[in-house]
Amino acid sequence: MTGRARLVMLWENSAMSFRSILSNKVRAFLTALGVVIGVASVIGLTALGHGAGIAVESRLSNLGANLLIVYSGEPRGTSLVRQRTTNIAPMLTADDLEFIDSLPSDLVVKTARESSQNGQLKFENRNTVATVIGTDPNYPDIRNFHPMYGSFFSELDMESRRNVVAIGVQTYRELFPDGRDPLGATIRINGLPFHVIAIMEEKGSPTQDASVLIPFTTYRRSLSGSDNYAIINIQAASTDVMYELQSTIENEMLRLRRVPSMEMANFYIANQMDLIGTVTGVADTFTLLLAGIAAISLLVGGIGIMNIMLVSVTERTREIGVRMALGAKGRHVMTQFLTEAVILSAGGGLIGVLLGYLFSWGAQRFGGLASVVTPDSVLIAFSFAVVIGLFFGGYPAYRASRLDPIEALRYE
Amino acid sequence: MIHISDIHKRYQMGPTMVNALGGVSLQIEAGEFVAITGPSGSGKSTLMNIIGCLDSPDSGSYLLAGEEVAELAPDDLAEIRNLRVGFVFQTFNLLPRATALENVELPLIYRGIGARRRRATAQAMLERVGLDDRMTHLPTELSGGQSQRVAIARALVGGPALILADEPTGALDTRTGEEIMALFEELNHDGVTLILVTHDNALAAHADRLVRLLDGLIVDNRAGVIV
Ligand SMILES: Nc1ncnc2c1ncn2[C@@H]1O[C@H](COP(=O)(O)OP(=O)(O)O)[C@@H](O)[C@H]1O
Ligand SMILES: [Mg+2]
After folding, report:
1. Strand B16-28 to B2-13 pairing
2. Which is higher by pLDDT, A180 or A287?
3. What pLDDT is stored for residue A78 in this prediction?
4. DSSP A193-237
5. Beta-carbon neighbour count of residue A93 at 10 Å?
6. Hey, which residues does B18 pair with through a beta bridge?
7. Would an 8 Å CB–CB cutoff place A5 in contact with chain B?
8. Mean pLDDT across the stretch B7-17?
């Protein structure tokens, strides 16, 4: 058969298939419905899973960019948000900080010491409890936790050990329920007077919103009395250097402590990358699971196509006989029915892609869910639909091609 | 053109075997108009299907234009049908969802001929059978006589050497049947080899030669008219 003849056959097969599909639109639609739903759910559910992953990732990035945290004490899982739930024994020293600060700027951008304890807060006749954090002026930048009103304490406040405080928004609401401007007001922390200089932005996390921040120098003199700190917050130069930086710091701190390995150390380092990796790993697994379930429905759609194609072949036995009498070979009949099955599944796939996008858009617009359609899922789901058409259309088409023309012509 | 010698064909009918053809030999020359007659069940259709390469004999030899076709594979038979044979059936066998023109185009599709040439050839054939004004009609919109004309146009469109018609007027009234017969005679005059299967002696009288079958055997094979 020449190339041109092949092309003629391909075109005619498609035209015949379209005509046959259009002649029974409702049935064609119901046949393709399984594939439509399968493809739409693969795309839609993957979009939801992917969107959830991105949302978590951005929330984690929100903790601060390229964040590395050295904790005092035994490791308790990878947690970047754990530190203020307990009062950590401050065992990080000026030597540790000095080493970290001495690292080149292509590793470390800035650092902030941090210690904390629970404190009793009082303003006029109102009392509340909050985590009192002593830290450095770099803290807002490193932790991505900025004042929304007023300004954070400065190097000068540090040097002068001023009694100034930036208060979390929840603490503000408890101490100033009338909503008045707190700047310049004097509150008492464990009985000591502090000037309010800022309200911190709302983070939606109680550990941050119910905290108050004071200069580390002030904290050391008035609250802890210790020169050491519980935490060193580090902003790394880039995500690429974070693991390198982590091991550099671990090695030096082990050396300073004359401890052979991290198992015996009295500190540990939490790496933002680890956490993001863990969470996105969970999200990916979740996405895969959803896609798998959706793929099963796609498979069921394929069985629907096979079912209808078998019916169609039986119904058109006589037509097949006529075509064979006029010179159709086995492969002509085979490709005709295969084309029809693929057009059904590809058409269903196309509608499914549109519905998948629509579903994703609707989930975002009306369900408030993060949803991102991935091109991969569209490509995979659509190709899978076509392959399913070929696979499940294959058997009915084969049966049609093997009919005996005489029997087929006698069929009533 | 057709050399058939000692052809047998048996069918399984439940527990018993039916001898549809029990040793048939027949020669037909190019340009002949042969009628195959005989009572129902005598093997006329079976013989015609074998002549038309729709079916293969169990044994015996069939030379079509010098080529042995008795043992060809289904796809090779399909090619022979497409190139050399035109079928006309009692019940027309038009594709119900295709227009008259599209029905006539079918054999050319399987020859891989492009749409434009196909259309032109099919139109010419429909004009020849007198259906210039019915080309875009669906079979349901055509009368029996018109449907059979479409079927004849379809049988002719590929320029086959052989036209096989199995009871072509069986589903038509007498007058329409006569019109169709007149068309066949005209085609035969133009040089087409024509084999007509019928149990109607009056129709068989149109033929140059008459082959009578009984229980799968040829009992009469002669030129001229019988009454
Ligand atoms: N496909 C078949 N299966 C079983 N029996 C058949 C088949 N085709 C024909 N026969 C039998 O073979 C015999 C000849 O049939 P046929 O050639 O159709 O006769 P005619 O066309 O003369 O009526 C009949 O007895 C018929 O029942
Ligand atoms: Mg018959």
Report:
1. antiparallel
2. A180
3. 47
4. EEEEEEEEPP-S-HHHHTEEEEEHHHHIIIII--S-BSEEEEEES
5. 17
6. B11
7. yes
8. 91
pTM: 0.73
- How far is Cα A235 from Cα A250, in angstroms, rounded to an integer? 16
Is the distance from CB of A42 to CB of A381 less than 8 angstroms? yes
AA identity, residue A54: I
Cβ–Cβ gap A328/B110 under 8 Å:
yes
* Angle at the Cα of A131 from the Cα atoms of A127 and A134, rounded to 5 degrees: 120
Mind listing the pLDDT tens digit for each residue in A21-32? 888 889 888 889
Residue nearest to atom 25 of ligand 1 (CA): B41
| Domain segments of chain A as ranges | 3-58+280-410, 110-233
Average pLDDT over residues A61-82: 71
Q: What DSSP letter does each residue of A379-405 carry, written as one string?
A: HHHHHHHHHHHHHHHHHHHHHHHT--H
The tens digit of pLDDT for each residue in A344-394 reads 999 999 999 999 999 999 998 998 888 889 898 899 999 999 999 999 999
Q: Is B42 in the pocket of ligand 1 (CB under 6 A)?
A: yes
Query: Do the Cβ atoms of A323 and B106 come within 8 Å?
Result: yes
Q: Is B45 in the pocket of ligand 1 (CB under 6 A)?
A: yes
- Given CB atoms, is B11 within the 8 Å cutoff of chain A? no
pLDDT in tens, A120-139: 999 999 999 999 999 999 99
Q: What value does the mean pLDDT of chain A take?
A: 89
Report d(CA A136, CA B55) in Å as an integer: 96
Chain A closest-CA separation from residue B36 CA (Å): 19
Q: How many CB atoms lie within 10 A of CB A29?
A: 15
Domains belonging to chain B, first-starting first, are 33-53+77-223 (3.40.50.300)
* Closest C-alpha among A175, A192, A221, A408 to residue A313: A408
CA gap A79, A74 in Å, rounded: 12
